[in-house]
Write a structure and sequence with these properties.
Blueprint lengths: L9 H11 L3 H6 L55 H28 L3 H4 L5 H10 L1 H19 L1 H23 L4 H27 L3 H19 L8 H33 L10 H6 L1
Length: 289
Amino acid sequence: MIPLKTHHQPSSSFFFSSISKPNTLHTISLQPHFLSLPQSPPLKFPLKFKPLPFSPSLPLQRVSKIELSICSNDEEFQDLSPKGEVYQKTLQLVECSMFAALTGLVYFLSNSLAIENYFSCFFSLPIVISSMRWGVDAGRKTLVATTILLFVLSGPVKALTYLLKHGIVGFTMGTLWRLETSWSLSIFLCTIVRSIGAVGFVLISSFLIRENILALITINIHASLTFVLTASGVNFIPSMNFIYTLFGILVLLNSGCFMFLLHMLYSVFLTRMGMKASLKLPRWLEKAI
């Protein structure tokens, strides 16, 4: 047998000795460089920053240069002062609705209590006031609102009666007064409108009761006129065309007198309300007032 021989290696002792006794200088040298930061000097206040020049190529800007625009368009700004457009439109709508409600209520109660003849001269006044204060558009709104309200409260017959006898007349008068037309033209046009409304009311009533009221009126006029002429000793029998012409003249005279009195009443009423500057009155009435 060949005996084994162990050879002593001096490097192994050195290796184990290096592990058991690490070198401090070697350990310090193995530390990373970012852990050993140099000590910076203390900051001194106040700090002064120089503003960077603006460049459109830069994606970011300073916060001090950013401006918030709440409304970019001028149309989005609304003037809510008493003289502003929004306030005036709201006030116009409120007044028109109040006038329509008041007129509808008074007309409904007067018809229910059979006192329409005592208040008929005031049914057109709210439409005239609305037209004088806010323009023709406001008068039309009051007319439409009142008619719809009466249609709901009293039915289509009462609403149509108001429209023919009072509503269109008030709207015509308010429009002519708003345009500052003369009294002669205003009375003439309102008389025609009133006459057409009266004839239309008769025709609608005839259709509803299934009876020709217009024929009954003309026949009664013909009989009364024939009796008067016969009693006077005049041998003349009027024709039906003459009766129709006489009926039209009587309707125009009735409507003309009514509109003349209505013009005087409304002129005095609006003058007392402080709207004299908006009226174009004749000289004799202006001096009397």
